[in-house]
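Write out the 3D structure for:
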Amino acid sequence: MNLNIRQTVMHNVKDNNTEQLQDTIVDSIQREEEQLLPGLGVLFEIIWKESAAEEQQRMLQTLENGLKH
């Protein structure tokens, strides 16, 4: 079976509005289920690719700070 996680995740959320996307992210985080992590990774990849360099730097700083806690 050839499963393309990126395509599946993107297909499942492509028509979602901002609120639905937020619900998907929050629900995935709150469930703390390992199998949901790849989907969050795909969503982060999209955010990263669509962000300007300054936004990427801010995300990296936020990540660094979060890892220190």
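The CA atoms of residues 3 and 31 lie 23 Å apart.
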